[in-house]
Design brief:
5-stranded mixed barrel, 260 residues, 1 helix, 4-stranded antiparallel sheet, OB fold (Dihydrolipoamide Acetyltransferase, E2P), mainly beta
Length: 260
Amino acid sequence: MVETLERASAPTQPAAPFRPAEVVAVTADGGYRVRPAGAPGRSVRPAQHALAQAGRCAVGSRVLLADDGAGGAYVIGVLDHAGAEAGARAAAGPEEEGGRLVLRDPDRGLVVAYDPATGELVLSPGAVANLALAAPDGDIALRAGRNLRFESTASAHLETDRLTLRARSALFAVTAAIVRADALTATIRRVRQASSRLEVSAGRIVERAGSVFRRASGLYRQDAGRMRVVVDETCDLGADKLDLRAKGEAKLDGEQIRLG
């Protein structure tokens, strides 16, 4: 049953639709935070009493709203006082549910759930809030005797001045990856790469090695504007067929040149 109260000196507002809502919080100034029926979890809006002699509504009450045309609303009637009692019980403390100890917010959203049988503790602030772990002047440590998982259906961000990762083994499996750095230094005992295609673009490449072994089963081709090969000791070229061509001058200089 709807309780009808006489309107006092409420401001004159343009005609607006009426709709039910639920009180999710009582503000310090005597107003409310309400969620209209059928609205998404985050659609919480402010509301004030439009009736001078109206009794106060508790968290969980179902009320009748009239939009004020400016983003707020007026409470013009109470639809269900039982909801207020349920909300008061929920805000009072934890309760047992299905063998678990649960704590809910005034909107009946699950905040904390503990299962004594499995030892599982779940923190879930619900649809109208985020979960934040903060230690402005201290550390936060997450320790797990077995597995530690981070899951997100959207994206994950990690920002820090210095990042250190240590593991006996690691696996990175991504569809696409981009690495940007001003400087990169890698010290690796052994590197093995397998790729269907490898492309390297650089302004300058400097390679130093004790020995270099390269093998191509197909074509091995080098294109250069200029090319210089300096060998300190012996230079040995072996091929089934050797073809040397020059568009201009070709010069061989040595103490001894043997052909044939």
